[in-house]
């Protein structure tokens, strides 16, 4: 199968959906010309679809999201981009109080078919305002779906699903994954929202990881394999809807779970996954689940500081050994 | 003697609509004080009727309106059925939102009413998006957003107007300056005497109009809406107006407003003003006006009856429509 980068996969999804459906439009900063935004993700998009459908917006996050909502309510399917997820704070009212609630509050009249693309994550000393992972905030808002792709295949398939969905979807790709390559079929496909993927099969311990953490988990699993420990890696791919069944099936087999995310620990997604395990899989657990997460600090700039607060392969290896009583 | 550019039928229709709003709001107050309206007391539109009616008299059914927390007048002027509106205020199943929204969240997409709003200024970017959508779909629809003087100090005001101006979108920004943002006098929190002055900063026309004179509001609206339909971009219209009651039902509105000020504005009642014009120009007889009053009273009575007779939603309906199910 041909290989594409994560960036190319996102781009291909967008081109295909804009060709397929005239209602799909893009609104974001830095869209003028052929560059396609800060991460070159939508390179050439404006060249093909023009400045009307690919709109270079003022630095007005709240208006970008509100504008996308107004367009969605009146028959368009916008993708609104927040250049770095850190700045989604500027659009929180529109997302939380309007985008997420419009369908419900209107008693089912409104269809809010829109995507908010907001790249998240630390990427080599980007510093405290260009590195954060805020996905947990949004799983706490009823009415939003949240996609967190880890591979080029998932990045393309999930974006196509998000654009076609009739609900608002936060599409949170990871800045540090842009260059990674992976197989992406030539023929059309979709990755449905709400279907986890077992990225590696194993018997002893389940690691739940998403976004960039999947790659760390796979590297850790590789290392552990050589030490005789068999690890299964479950990637939920979307946090809302969350595929409980795939996780529970894995836990039935392994009885042990390590949950990994880059975001800081307190109030993070891992806590919610642990609650699901307690409520729905307690009988299958042989040990308390363990979290490997970012520390409860802002993301520092200096490389050794940044490395210290983020999860890495070794921290995951240690957590797996700990849960097996081998550390 | 005022020169009248409107046909008799149009003037009568505006009279009828202002009266509808006045009588509707009086009933709302009555029902609220009788404990029939759950939750927080509604914000009444009494005194400001000329603004909603004068602007909306220029709109088609397929044009769009967004509003704020004092929205009943905009709903009625845009064509939301009064019985459905009243049922919504009472939290009933037959309300326009099926009881999900209440007074500050009215949505009726069938008449282009994209939403009242509980967040000050939040409807502004949403209207911008509706205007963008109209343009991209190649229609000559326009979007009007109504907001108060308080909203003119929100970030969304700046972001939304700048975006609409730079993209030349068919959006009309209508500021209802009723001199008080809740209990705060506008002059003590606003950098300019006239909010319309701010239009200069966005390179768009800013118009100040007597918001107690429905004919003047109509004419200002006509100019702005024509301009928008012709693709010439947005206008900011500031209507100087006054609420005859407190911020909400139960707020006497006296402690923070001078008695002389209240009395002076009450003398400028927009409904009486149009009535005088109609009678003095001998277009309508007192008998005809009486008949309209009776018809409106009956219509409002029927709306109340409809709302009171409508059942409450069944509790388990509360979990419907968080998401749009894909069928």
From TrEMBL, chain A:
Could you say which EC number(s) this protein's record lists?
1.2.7.11
Cite the Pfam families for this sequence. Transket_pyr, Transketolase_C
Which reactions is this enzyme annotated as catalysing?
A: a 2-oxocarboxylate + 2 oxidized [2Fe-2S]-[ferredoxin] + CoA = an acyl-CoA + 2 reduced [2Fe-2S]-[ferredoxin] + CO2 + H(+)
Q: Name the needed cofactors.
A: thiamine diphosphate
Domain Transketolase-like pyrimidine-binding span(s) in chain numbering:
4-180
Key word Oxidoreductase present: yes
Q: Which InterPro entries match?
A: THDP-binding (IPR029061), Transketo_C/PFOR_II (IPR009014), Transketolase-like_Pyr-bd (IPR005475), Transketolase_C (IPR033248)
Which key words are in the record?
Answer: Oxidoreductase, Thiamine pyrophosphate
- The identity of this protein, by name, is 2-oxoacid oxidoreductase (ferredoxin)
> Lineage of the source organism?
Archaea, Thermoproteota, Thermoprotei, Fervidicoccales, Fervidicoccaceae
């Amino acid at each position: 199968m041909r290989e594409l980068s994560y960036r190319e996969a996102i781009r291909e999804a967008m081109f295909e959906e804009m060709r397929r459906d005239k209602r799909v439009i893009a609104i974001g900063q830095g869209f003028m010309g052929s560059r396609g935004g800060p991460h070159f993700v939508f390179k050439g998009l404006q060249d093909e679809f023009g400045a009307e459908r690919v709109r270079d917006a003022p630095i007005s996050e709240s208006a970008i999201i509100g504008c996308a909502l107004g367009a969605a309510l009146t028959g368009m399917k916008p993708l609104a981009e927040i250049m770095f997820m850190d700045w989604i704070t500027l659009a929180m009212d529109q997302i939380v109080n309007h985008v997420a609630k419009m369908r419900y509050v209107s008693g089912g009249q409104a269809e809010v078919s829109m995507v908010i693309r907001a790249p998240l994550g630390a990427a080599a000393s980007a510093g405290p305002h260009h590195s954060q992972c805020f996905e947990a905030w949004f799983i706490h808002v009823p009415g939003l779906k949240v996609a967190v792709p880890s591979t080029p295949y998932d990045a393309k398939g999930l974006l196509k699903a998000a654009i076609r969905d009739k609900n608002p979807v936060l599409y949170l790709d990871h800045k540090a994954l842009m260059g990674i390559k992976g197989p992406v079929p030539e023929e059309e496909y979709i990755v449905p929202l709400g279907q986890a993927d077992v990225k590696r099969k194993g018997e002893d311990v389940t690691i739940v990881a998403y976004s960039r953490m999947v790659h760390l988990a796979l590297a850790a699993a590789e290392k552990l394999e050589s030490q005789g420990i068999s690890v299964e890696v479950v990637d939920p791919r979307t946090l809302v809807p969350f595929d409980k069944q795939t996780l529970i099936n894995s836990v039935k087999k392994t009885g042990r779970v390590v949950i990994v995310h880059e975001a800081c620990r307190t109030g993070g997604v891992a806590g919610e996954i642990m609650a699901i395990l307690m409520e729905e899989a307690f009988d299958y657990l042989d040990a308390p689940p363990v979290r490997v997460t970012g520390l409860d600090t802002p993301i520092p700039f200096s490389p050794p500081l940044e490395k210290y607060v983020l999860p890495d392969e070794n921290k995951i290896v240690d957590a797996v050994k700990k849960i097996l009583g081998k550390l | 003697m005022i020169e009248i550019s409107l046909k008799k039928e149009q003037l009568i229709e505006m009279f009828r609509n202002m009266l509808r709003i006045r009588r509707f709001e009086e009933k709302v107050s009555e029902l609220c004080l009788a404990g029939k309206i759950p939750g927080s007391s509604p914000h009444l539109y009494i005194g400001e009727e000329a603004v909603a009616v004068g602007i909306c008299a220029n709109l088609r059914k397929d044009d769009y309106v967004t509003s704020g927390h004092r929205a009943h007048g905009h709903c009625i002027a845009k064509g939301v059925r009064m019985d459905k509106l009243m049922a919504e205020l009472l939290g009933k199943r037959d309300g326009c939102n099926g009881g999900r929204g209440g007074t500050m969240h009215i949505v009726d997409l069938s008449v282009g009413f994209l939403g009242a709003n509980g967040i000050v200024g939040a409807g502004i970017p949403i209207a911008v998006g509706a205007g963008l959508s109209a343009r991209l779909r190649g229609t000559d629809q326009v979007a009007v957003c109504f907001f108060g003087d308080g909203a003119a100090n929100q970030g969304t005001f700046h972001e939304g107007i700048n975006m609409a101006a730079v993209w030349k979108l068919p959006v009309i920004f209508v500021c209802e300056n009723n001199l008080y943002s809740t209990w705060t006098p506008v002059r003590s929190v606003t950098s300019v005497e006239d909010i319309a002055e701010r239009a200069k900063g966005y390179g768009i026309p800013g118009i100040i109009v007597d918001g107690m004179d429905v004919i003047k509001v109509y004419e200002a609206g006509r100019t702005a809406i024509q301009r928008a339909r012709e693709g010439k971009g947005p206008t900011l219209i500031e209507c100087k107006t006054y609420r005859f009651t407190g911020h909400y039902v139960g707020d006497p509105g006296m402690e923070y407003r001078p008695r002389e000020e209240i009395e002076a504005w009450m003398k400028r009642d927009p409904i009486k003003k149009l009535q005088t014009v109609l009678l003095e120009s001998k277009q309508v007889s007192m008998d005809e006006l009486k008949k309209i009053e009776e018809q409106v009273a009956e219509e409002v009575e029927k709306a109340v009856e409809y709302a009171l007779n409508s059942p409450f939603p069944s509790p388990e309906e509360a979990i419907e429509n968080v998401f749009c199910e894909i069928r």
